[in-house]
Amino acid sequence: MFIVLSLTQLLQDSSHLVRCKCLELIGALGSPDHAMAAxxxxxxxxxxxxxxxxxDFSRDPxxxxxxxxxxxxxxxx
Length: 77
What we know:
It is a single chain. Helix 2 (16-29) packs parallel to helix 4 (63-76). 57% of the residues lie in helices and 8% in strands. It has helices at residues 2-10, 16-29, 50-56, 63-76, and strands spanning 35-37, 47-49. The protein has one domain: Leucine-rich Repeat Variant (Alpha Horseshoe). It contains four helices and two strands, in the order H-H-E-E-H-H. Strands 1-2 form a two-stranded antiparallel sheet.
């Protein structure tokens, strides 16, 4: 799951196109309960699941990124 971890680092990019493509790939490649080192959001155990990362981006200021986050949640589930 090194690819998914690399993609989560790219989610901090300022371009909506980069964030959207990363969210799309995360939804396609990852399993929803895959725990990973928390860099974007943390649960009480210091890890986050892909769905929680995607959920964080459902509150993005850019509507295109929010839409992609929701679509990726559907694909990952």
